[in-house]
Write a structure and sequence with these properties.
Layout (H helix, E strand, L loop, with lengths): L13 E3 L12 E3 L14 H9 L4 E5 H8 L11 E4 L5 E6 L6 E10 L7 E7 L2 E5 L17 E2 L2 E2 L4 E3 L15 H11 L3
Parallel strand pairs: 1-2, 2-3, 3-4, 8-11
Antiparallel strand pairs: 5-6, 6-7, 7-8, 9-10
């Protein structure tokens, strides 16, 4: 279960993996890391649907695979006009309307491979308030993060002002997380060919 509140202090106009609540509905841009229900709270609600319909300039960004998962479900197909798929490991400019002065603020959003689930992504946000990394659920091999080029500027790691880590497995009751081989064996026993 995700324990993230949906907003970062640096970019409160961007909501991540939470789509309900008055503070989240004040956001101007929405990001979805992957299609697990604990990261999609409020996504199918009438309130969120009306919010997006009232503000067609507000978009929901996700990976191409996540977008396809959403559009194959009747529960989420109403989001079609608001969904924007971003490529993995390519910086993309996202313009966010500033309600105070009606100007567009530019934020660079890069989806990074999360290794958790097909289409899952971490988000690197780069803008006036500094660099922020939101992980969502992630599962990377040791050393994999060091190989993610978009976290580097040349040979140097980009400075990250804040790191928001999904806390699903920070529960002391969870002492063992099976590796991918064990998970694969478990799944193959359940799948009938």
């Amino acid at each position: 279960m995700s324990t993230f509140c949906g907003l970062t202090k640096e970019y409160p106009q961007v909501a991540l993996d939470l789509f309900s609540g008055k503070d989240v509905l004040r956001a101007r841009t929405y990001l979805l890391s992957h299609v697990h229900t604990d990261h999609m709270v409020g996504l199918h609600s009438d309130v969120f649907a009306r919010h997006l319909k009232k503000h067609p300039e507000y978009k929901l960004y996700c990976s191409e695979v996540t977008r396809e998962f959403l559009l194959t479900s009747n529960k989420y197909c109403h989001l079609r006009n608001s969904l924007v798929a971003l490529p993995i490991q390519q910086a993309c400019d996202v313009n966010i309307l500033n309600d105070v002065n009606s100007e567009q603020q530019q934020l660079q959003v890069t989806l990074l491979p999360a290794g958790h689930y097909p289409g899952s992504a971490m988000f690197l946000l780069e803008g006036h308030a500094g660099n922020v990394l939101y992980t969502g659920d992630f599962r990377l091999k040791n050393g994999a993060a060091a190989k993610i080029e978009m976290l580097h500027a040349g040979d140097v790691v980009k400075p990250i002002r804040s790191l928001y880590i999904d806390t699903t497995f920070f529960d002391p009751k969870i002492m063992y997380i099976p590796d991918r081989f064990v998970q694969g064996c478990s799944v193959s026993k359940e799948v009938k060919v």
